[in-house]
Amino acid sequence: MKFPRTYALQEIADLINVEFVGPSDFPVLGMNEIHVVEKGDIVFVDHPKYYDKALQSKASIILINKKVECPEGKALLISDNPFSDFNIISRHFNSFQPASQSVAASAQIGEGTFVQPNVFIGNNVKIGKNCIIHSNVSIYDGVEIGNNVILHSGTVLGANAFYYKKRETHFERLETCGSIAIEDDVEIGALCSIDRGVTGITRIKKGTKIDNQVQIGHDTVIGERCLIAAQVGIAGCTILKNEVTLWGQVGVTSGVTLAKGTTLLAQSGINKNTEVNETYFGSPAGKIRVKFKEVAAITQLPNLIQKLKRNV
Length: 312
Prior knowledge:
Layout: E1 2-8, H1 9-16, E2 19-21, E3 27-31, E4 41-45, H2 51-55, E5 61-64, E6 75-78, H3 82-93, E7 108-109, E8 114-115, E9 120-121, E10 126-127, E11 132-133, E12 138-139, E13 144-145, E14 150-151, E15 156-159, E16 164-166, E17 171-173, E18 179-182, E19 187-188, E20 193-195, E21 201-204, E22 209-210, E23 215-216, E24 221-222, E25 227-228, E26 233-234, E27 239-240, E28 245-246, E29 251-252, E30 257-258, E31 263-264, E32 269-270, E33 279-282, E34 285-287, H4 288-299, H5 301-311
Parallel strand pairs: 3-4, 4-5, 5-6, 7-10, 8-11, 9-12, 10-13, 11-14, 12-15, 13-18, 14-19, 15-20, 18-21, 19-22, 20-23, 21-24, 22-25, 23-26, 24-27, 25-28, 26-29, 27-30, 28-31, 29-32, 31-33
Antiparallel strand pairs: 1-3, 2-6, 16-17, 33-34
């Protein structure tokens, strides 16, 4: 997320009431998670295991819970609780704006687009030309939708990321201030839920088709011409390259990359990166040729056990 103007390091430090390391006028342009961070951004880190990754990232300002040596050309914000302070910054620059009508006055809707009754369209939403938005769709603030997109009834675009830190007495949610981009010629079925990015963008690329009751987590990128069948669940920060096919009830864990042309057969669960144009099956999923041999071998176990008993 980029800020509306360039802020000085001193201003951000005052906002969250922390000590800083670096020039007071050091420029701060925005904030982002580690996987999408850019020069000028703030990134937070609160575990020693990830200190080096954060300090050596593209981020210019590191919100950290220990005073460490500051890399050249960067600045530090020293916080007792970087997670909570990151939330304070998020809320300051992306505060909740309650709706006063079903279609916000700031929404932009292109020529030839049909919006059915009982649709909610939030602040600063952009919808392209010749789209069909069916009844009871909810589109949260800031979502961008291309041309020739179809959204079926009950779908929600822009809910919060499922991202929590466990505290002694409760779970603290990481504030969600990113958005969603739906490109041209996408069709999304009924009762789907697509979460916006924590600080970046969840993206569905051109020509992808999504069936009913699909969940797509925050910051995930779905490539062009993908097919996703009903009841698929895709965790956050996942990348699907072009022409990936996920059949019904597939589960995809966070942070993996599914290579171009990957196919996952129904009810498979994938927890690792895949190879180009390969088909996978099972949970945990493996290449179909290997998995089918394993299944065939398992069916022979009762006969093998009987033979062993006869030979005892």
